[in-house]
């Protein structure tokens, strides 16, 4: 079967309002906003943008408000890097979603997300014929998991690898409620905090052996690869019988950590698409590329401004 796309990313496309502040407010407090920017965002949309900038043939599936200002900005920004938008869905009832991001001088952020139309992507919006001509399917951070389950079923039937980067909107629903989705994916990319919440480890003293044992619970569901992103510590790659922590790249200055996980996912998929190998050494290289892209991302404001081009990728 001829593949039209390298990757189809599915999830939320929002507009981020990013406020730069000196400190976070206390209760009944007010802080001065030194700068306010309007940027396209949403986890899956950020990953789609990064994939396209890295040279992958990329399409995006998600729901926007029909002909509203935020939706038009999202489409225009996708067009800048040639993300295919023909598979977008539109709502006549709900507006395009937005996120409100408070960013302090250390580059840490607080996010308040209003999914808007994005969360009303439905099972009925998912068309098998639209997803059949891609090498990878990527799912990320949508509270409504019904369309994700439908997508994952299609991926299994068509033997297309499905990668899930869930985000807290999915993780906070609890292991039992999202198990049906986890059983249908091939690769799970998850942050350290999400891993701990998913497997109820928050109040336990975590060590490497425990992490491997808990990862076995995920492998028993049929997942082949688990990647745990650990921020300044890099990323831990686990497969059946193998585990290794891959250190991060050296960065100049952390300006904004927004989108670092989305950038990592794009870098990992850039590597994976080269050979679609599940060999541990190949997966480790994919993680190194993910770390590189994430490291460049956080050197600039916003989830997309620091994403390098394909020829700028450097691995030691």
Describe the model.
The chain has 316 residues and is α/β, with parallel strands linked by helices. Helix content is 33%, strand content 26%. Strand 7 and strand 8 form a beta hairpin. Helix 1 crosses helix 9 and helix 9 packs antiparallel against helix 10. The longest helix has 18 residues. It is globular and about 50 Å long.
Compute the number of structural domains: 1
Report how far apart the termini are: 36 Å
How would you classify the helix and strand content by structural class?
Answer: alpha/beta
Number of helical regions: 10
Per CATH, the class reads Alpha Beta
What quaternary form is this? Answer: single chain
What summary fits the major beta sheet?
8 strands, mixed
Radius of gyration: 18 Å
Strand arrangement within the widest β-sheet reads 4-1-9-10-11-12-13-14
Number of E strands:
14
How would the global form be characterised? Answer: globular
**Considering the protein shown, what is the CATH homologous superfamily?**
Ribokinase
Unreliable residue runs: none
Helix % is: 25-40%
CATH architecture: 3-Layer(aba) Sandwich
Features:
single chain; 316 residues; alpha/beta; UDP-N-acetylmuramoyl-L-alanine:D-glutamate ligase; eight-stranded mixed sheet; four-stranded mixed sheet; 10 helices; 33% helix; globular
Task: Describe the SSE topology.
Layout lengths: L4 E7 L2 E8 L11 E9 L1 H11 L4 E4 L1 E3 L3 H12 L8 E3 L4 E8 L5 E8 L11 H4 L2 E7 L5 H13 L3 E4 L2 H4 L3 H8 L4 E5 H7 L9 H12 L5 E5 L5 E5 L2 E5 L13 H16 L4 H18 L19
Parallel strand pairs: 1-4, 1-9, 2-7, 5-6, 9-10, 10-11, 11-12
Antiparallel strand pairs: 2-3, 7-8, 12-13, 13-14
């Amino acid at each position: 079967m001829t593949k039209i796309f390298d990757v189809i990313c599915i999830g939320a496309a929002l507009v981020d309002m990013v406020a730069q502040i000196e400190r976070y407010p206390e209760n009944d407090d007010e802080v001065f906003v030194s700068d306010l920017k309007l940027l396209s965002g949403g986890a899956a949309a950020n990953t789609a943008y990064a994939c396209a900038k890295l040279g992958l043939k990329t399409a995006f599936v998600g729901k926007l408000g029909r002909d509203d200002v935020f939706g038009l900005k999202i489409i225009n920004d996708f067009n800048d890097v040639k993300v295919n938008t023909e598979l977008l869905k539109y709502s006549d009832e709900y507006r395009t979603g937005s996120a409100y991001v408070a960013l302090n001088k250390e580059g840490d952020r607080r996010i308040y997300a209003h999914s808007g139309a994005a969360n009303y992507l439905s099972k009925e919006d998912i068309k098998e014929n639209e997803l059949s001509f891609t090498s990878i399917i990527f799912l990320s951070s949508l509270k409504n998991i019904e369309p994700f389950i439908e997508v994952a079923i299609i991926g299994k039937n068509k033997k297309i690898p499905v990668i899930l980067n869930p985000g807290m909107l999915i993780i906070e629903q609890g292991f039992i409620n999202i198990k049906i989705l986890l059983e249908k994916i091939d690769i799970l990319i998850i942050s350290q905090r999400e891993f701990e919440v998913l497997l109820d480890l928050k109040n336990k003293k975590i060590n490497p052996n425990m992490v491997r044992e808990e990862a076995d619970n995920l492998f028993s569901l049929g997942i082949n690869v688990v990647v745990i992103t650990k921020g300044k510590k890099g990323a831990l790659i686990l497969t059946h019988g193998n585990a290794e922590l891959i250190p991060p790249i050296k960065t100049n200055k952390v300006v904004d950590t927004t989108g670092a996980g989305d950038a990592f996912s794009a870098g990992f998929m850039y590597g994976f698409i080269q050979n679609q190998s599940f060999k541990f050494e190949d997966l480790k290289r994919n993680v190194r590329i993910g770390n590189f892209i994430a490291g460049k991302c956080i050197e600039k404001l916003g989830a997309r401004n620091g994403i390098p081009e394909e020829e700028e990728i450097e691995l030691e």
